């Protein structure tokens, strides 16, 4: 009886922790190459040299991890939402005429809304004025293009083509 009670207690403690576990969405799983800086009307905390260091690097998403260089986020909490062009402008632009202004048009997004995926995690390392991991918050532009920002610099990444892979 005591053994059964211990097993039940263990099961009840493990279940809630694993029941909330989410996989990183399949639509972004795989390797992505940061291909360019998107010109925007934003005020950034990075200079050109700091921003350029991301170009050509890879972001790798597996069902349970996000990796960029030596930074690895394991089992992040995942937020998925749809964001409209108006919401995006309001949330990511300043309120004054001299403040940062960014919108879907500047990012090359013609849709009225896109999916936003946020991988929440504890701060890992200061990336020159901001704690983030490239790719921990992305807009899905299309099946082979994601957009993310760091220090208010916007980047575009493309799915890495793997010969023989169904998504290539």
Mind explaining what this structure looks like?
This protein is α+β, with helices and mostly antiparallel strands and 168 residues long. It has one domain. Helices cover 21% and strands 33% of the residues. A 9-stranded antiparallel sheet has the order 4-3-2-1-9-8-7-6-5.
Secondary structure topology:
Blueprint: H1 2-19, E1 30-38, H2 48-52, E2 58-61, E3 65-68, E4 71-74, E5 77-84, H3 85-92, H4 104-107, E6 113-120, E7 137-142, E8 145-150, E9 153-159
Antiparallel strand pairs: 1-2, 1-9, 2-3, 3-4, 5-6, 6-7, 7-8, 8-9
User: Low-confidence runs (pLDDT<50, min 5 residues)?
Assistant: 1-20
Q: What's the main sheet like?
A: 9 strands, antiparallel
The share of residues in helices is 10-25%
Whole-number mean pLDDT:
85
